[in-house]
Amino acid sequence: MSFNASLANLFDRMSAMLELTGADRFRVNAHAKAARVIRDHATDLEPIARDPKALTAIDGIGKGTAAKIAEFAETGSIAEHDELAGRVPPGVLEMLNIPGLGPKTVKLLWEEKGIESIHALKDAIEDGSILDLPRMGAKTVENIKESIAFIESSGKRLHIGVAMPVAEALVARMLNTAGVTRCAFAGSLRRGKESIGDIDVLVSTTDPEAARAAFCEHSSVTKVLARGEHKCSVRLSLDGLGGRFAAETEAAIQADLRLIPESSWGAALMYFTGSKEHNVRLRERALAKGMTLNEWGLFPEDRNDSTPPQQRGVPAVASETEASIYEALGLPFLPPTVREDRGEFDLKHTPRLIEVADIKAELHSHTVASDGEMTIEESAAKALERGFHTLAITDHSQSSAVANGLKPERLREHIKRVRAANEAVDGITLLAGSEVDILVDGNLDYDDDLLQMLDILVASPHAGLKARPAQATKRLLKAISHPLVHIIGHPTGRLIERRPGMEPAMDELIAAAIEHDVALEINAHWMRLDLRDTHVRAAVEAGCKIAINCDVHAPGDYDNLRYGVLTGQRGWLPPEQCINTWDHQKLHDWLRSKR
Ligand code: DGT
Ligand code: CA
Ligand code: CA
Ligand code: ZN
Asked: What is the pLDDT of residues 412-449, one digit of tens each?
């Protein structure tokens, strides 16, 4: 694990342990915030760990946090953490992973019943002794039991590419149900996160019972976890859904349906879209303006009443649309993909972020010549359907033997074939390129005279992805500085939830990419999404060119584009900074400038 990731985990654990030991809110939140800032930081903090000035210059890191980072770099641990860990048994911390079980309840179980592990919790449920606790009814206990079973059976987050089609099918089904006037998904999925804990669906309807039935009684539902007046929760089977990689690890997902009065639609959509951190900031802002924000609406504040305003018939200042609430709070409309409390509250206008419709070229694709499923012509037809003006054919290079990489002789032949296909096909320009392996030493996988013949060169790391960060940085910097390289493909080589990939110094790569006029790729495949959102953000701020490519192997891969675009949006990517949005002339001028 990287320095940043280990450190962030420690801060997360400290925050949880502080909460469990009854520390004040402020300390709990400060540690959680530090964890988030460290995890999201695009560059390795280790080199500056002993430099308090450099650390506190980072937004969200104060003196106290900086001292703990230095301590961790120095000793490999943090005394405060070890002290807390001496007081909180690890099994108690583990109980926090059970969905629906918050710190308050875990604390109660621990202090009142001496329950110190999930195992002990299961025993207390089995023998019924858990029911002695205040506010612990049979229903609550049943839910906890279900949740334990759920984390024991899966517990994993789902790839966005698996969850999205399921959510869209759900929404379509609800919209086809009698009485339904509105339906949308919210949560992390609407924010376009790379992985999804559960699917959150909101619905407005004149026939609540029909909506509940449509949601809970569908054939894909394997278990109804709750069927209440305002909220239903189900577990869905994903058999047959989700594409190439889904089946083995991702068999089930939970989905929640919330029934929302139409007049509160905007407020509910805002609340359940999150992120939680964004919501906290919104509520603070409302309070500062003398108002109260909740999932029902934005209300004038009247502190002398403890009943929520909507229950007293207080008219909302705004509630029907998200835009009206942002406006009443003095904010521009903030797109869901930026709602992470990562600086969006400083925006003066709604940012124009990249959209799928902006993309005009695919610059990374494979054909039957290496490990793709389509011929050059078949892939070109798909790209044409999407309205692209350019498709780059970039089959694998010789070292990628498992992917049937092309030996120099075959590449020469292939270049001729692409050029001939380009002559034969109307309406689109086909480029003869290659996805050239960046070898472990940073050299490229063909000689320069052969590389020079290519219209476009995507250089990607495929092997040796466990290299130490310094090694990885050196390797990638060498490729970036190669004068014939246009794009660095999936720069870290990570696979989400399966392989961490390399952890190069992203700031150095970005600076070098700018210096050498190279674009860094967001690989749109939902297993990769590499660059990841935080890397994109750093690259965008520095002014680095970005490519969004589908790395096409099969016809359906063109449809992954939206996941790359969502990742771009989460990095605040404006269209003009993405080379795939450029018109034909501009793109080809740039490509030729490197020949
Ligand atoms: P996930 O499902 O883990 O990928 O992440 P989300 O963001 O979809 O989280 P989820 O499903 O627990 O809740 C959906 C949204 O509801 C979340 O983004 C913000 C809102 N929400 C849920 N619980 C809280 C809370 O305790 N406080 C606040 N402010 N918002 C919450
Ligand atoms: Ca969710
Ligand atoms: Ca949820
Ligand atoms: Zn590729």
From this structure: 999 999 999 999 999 999 999 999 999 999 999 999 99
Output the pLDDT for position 293. Answer: 96
572 and 514 in a common domain: yes
Angle at 286 between CA 282 and CA 287, to 5 degrees: 120
Using CA positions, which residue lies closest to atom 17 of ligand 1?
274
Count of domains forming the chain:
5
Taking the C-alpha atoms of residue 455 and residue 476, their distance in angstroms, rounded to an integer, is 21
Which residues are within 8 A (CB) of 367 and not within 5 positions of it... i.e. 6 or more apart?
Answer: 374, 375, 376, 379, 393, 395
Sign, CA dihedral 344-350-354-356, equals: positive
In sequence order, the β-bridge partners of residue 549 are 523
What pLDDT score was predicted for residue 239? 59
Q: How far apart are CA 294 and CA 274, in angstroms?
A: 12
Position 2 scores a pLDDT of 79
CATH number, domain at 76?
1.10.150.110
Residue 532 one-letter amino acid:
R
Assess whether the C-beta atom of 187 lies below 6 angstroms from ligand 1: yes
- For residue 280 and ligand 1, the question of a CB distance below 6 A is answered with yes
Please choose from 19, 158, 162, 200 the residue to mutate so as to test ligand 1's pocket, defined by most ligand atoms within 8 A of CB.
Answer: 200
In the chain, which residues have pLDDT < 50? Answer: 240-250
Q: Count CB neighbours of 161 within 10 A.
A: 24
**Boundary residue ending a domain (284, 313, 346):** 346
CA of 297 to the centre of ligand 4 (A): 47
Q: Which pLDDT value is given to residue 301?
A: 82
| Cβ of residue 555 lying under 6 Å from some atom of ligand 1 | no
Q: With beta carbons less than 8 A apart as the criterion, state whether 524 and 563 touch.
A: yes
Look up the domain containing 325 and give its range.
276-346
Kindly state whether residues 511 and 581 are assigned to the same domain. Answer: yes
**CA 187–ligand 1 middle distance (angstroms):** 6
Among residues 153, 170, 186, which one ends one of the domains? Answer: 153
Ligand 1 centre to CA of 275 (Å) is 6
Please indicate, yes or no, whether residues 168 and 247 belong to a single structural domain of this protein: yes
Residue 242: per-residue pLDDT: 37
| Closest to 487 measured CA to CA, from 523, 532, 440 | 523
Q: What is the pLDDT of residue 419?
A: 98
Determine if ligand 1 sits within 6 Å of the CB of residue 231: no
Instruction: Give the pLDDT score at 248.
Output: 35
Closest to 589 measured CA to CA, from 429, 383, 470 = 429
Shared domain for 45 and 122, answered yes or no, is no
Is the pTM of the predicted complex or chain greater than 0.85?
no
